[in-house]
């Protein structure tokens, strides 16, 4: 007796930028794909001053080129052509220039809502991709060559079957919990305060990373005189900084950042995110795999988190496309292990690098400020080392899948 075919070849739990991006990356493959997302996407909202922003590394631009939607994204971005890195209260500065890396930009800043709208608009062109929303996963169970996924949607419970379940449901992944995959956590005792700010002087496509004794303070260019602020502070400072009026907050920010962009003239709504390093002890289970923040949730220093997840998307999309072309089982352990082995070097390197940066620059141990200043100065004076750093930071190091080279999967 023939086994009943599954409802889907792939079910993606989480329809955020990583989950929907993976669906779009695989859209030209003959695969039936379902996206389970709790919050229906909206396209009618206009981006506002408060819109959350994302920094895309140059390598992420190439992935979106390979997927086929960069031409729609590009006009909505602000390029990062210069990066200014400093250590508050200490000498030493490093300046990274796109021209030094022979790139048109080191990265691009785009509003998250705009990026999501572009991806979902593109997904509408593919009838084999189904958005299940609003819906939430409530249980999972493996049965032979299929995974059963129970969802609740508008008070109605359904059970779906798939060859492979992909958890792209973020750092608090419910699917990861249901699969009983343990995680390693490191609490930094820090919180990120995120908001958009306006400045007296234009940023001229410059991103700033300023290390302070409470954590890094980053400004990402967003529009001519608007920047996205990611200010890391110690947890004990959060109740005060979250509650003070805008004028007082900007005065504190001015004191920490300095006058490189003149006066801060306006701030939007503040958002607060406690910070920790989270890594899943394994990324695959029976016919299930974790990607993006569900697998690794990083400190925002150097803005690597989303870009690392997007590189997961590029590698997994190629792994699954190659497996389907060779008529291999998409959910088989050997298929999923190929992906995990491919990604482990990049994931470990970025997690370790960001962790070291946080620990190195978030304290005032005697003599460490001098060592940091010497390091920043040396980096600024050594072009080979600087180019190597930029290659890693822009996502161009290591083995590159087709999408990361700007090529389609076809």
TrEMBL record:
Pathway: Cofactor biosynthesis; ubiquinone biosynthesis. Keywords: FAD, Flavoprotein, Monooxygenase, Oxidoreductase. PROSITE patterns: UBIH (PS01304). Its cofactor is FAD. The keyword Oxidoreductase applies. One of its GO terms (biological process) is ubiquinone biosynthetic process. InterPro entries: FAD-bd, FAD/NAD-bd_sf, Ubi_Hdrlase_CS, UbiH, UbiH/COQ6, UbiH/COQ6_monooxygenase. Residues 8-342 form the FAD-binding domain. One of its GO terms (molecular function) is FAD binding. Gene3D superfamilies: FAD/NAD(P)-binding domain. Belongs to the UbiH/COQ6 family. This is 2-polyprenyl-6-methoxyphenol 4-hydroxylase. It comes from Nitrosococcus watsoni (strain C-113).
């Amino acid at each position: 007796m023939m086994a009943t075919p599954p409802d889907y070849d792939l079910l993606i739990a989480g329809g955020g930028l990583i989950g929907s991006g993976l669906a779009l990356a695989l859209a030209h493959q003959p695969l039936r794909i379902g996206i389970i997302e709790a919050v229906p996407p909206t396209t009618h909202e206009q981006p506002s001053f408060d819109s959350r922003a994302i920094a895309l590394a140059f390598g992420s631009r190439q992935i979106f080129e390979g997927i086929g939607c960069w031409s729609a994204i590009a006009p909505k971005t602000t390029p990062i052509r210069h990066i200014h890195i400093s250590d508050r209260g200490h000498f030493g500065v490093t300046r990274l220039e796109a021209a030094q890396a022979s790139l048109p930009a080191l990265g691009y800043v785009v509003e998250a809502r705009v990026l999501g709208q572009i991806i979902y608009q593109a997904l509408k062109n593919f009838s084999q991709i189904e958005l299940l929303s609003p819906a939430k996963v409530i249980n999972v169970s493996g049965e032979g060559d299929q995974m059963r996924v129970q969802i609740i949607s508008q008070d109605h419970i359904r059970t779906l079957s798939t060859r492979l379940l992909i958890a792209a449901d973020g750092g608090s992944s419910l699917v990861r919990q249901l699969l009983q995959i343990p995680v390693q956590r490191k609490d930094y005792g820090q919180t990120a305060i995120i908001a958009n700010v306006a400045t007296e002087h234009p940023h001229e496509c410059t991103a700033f990373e300023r290390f302070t004794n409470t954590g890094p303070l980053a400004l990402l260019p967003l529009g001519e005189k608007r920047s996205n602020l990611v200010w890391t502070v110690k947890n004990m400072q959060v109740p005060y900084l979250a509650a003070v009026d805008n004028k007082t907050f900007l005065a504190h920010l001015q004191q920490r950042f300095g006058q490189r962009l003149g006066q801060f003239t306006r701030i939007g709504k503040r958002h607060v995110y406690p910070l920790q390093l989270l890594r899943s002890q394994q990324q695959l289970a029976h016919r299930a795999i974790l990607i993006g923040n569900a697998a690794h949730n990083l400190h925002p220093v150097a803005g690597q988190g989303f870009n690392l997840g997007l590189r997961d998307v590029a590698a997994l999309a190629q792994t699954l496309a190659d497996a389907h072309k060779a008529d291999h089982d998409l959910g088989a352990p050997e298929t999923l292990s190929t992906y995990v082995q491919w990604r482990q070097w990049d994931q470990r390197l970025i997690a370790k690098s960001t962790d070291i940066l946080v620990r190195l620059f978030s304290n005032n141990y005697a003599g460490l400020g001098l060592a940091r200043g010497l390091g920043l100065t040396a980096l600024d004076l050594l072009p080979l080392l600087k180019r190597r750093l930029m290659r890693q930071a822009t996502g161009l190091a290591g083995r590159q899948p087709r999408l990361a080279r700007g090529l389609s999967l076809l």
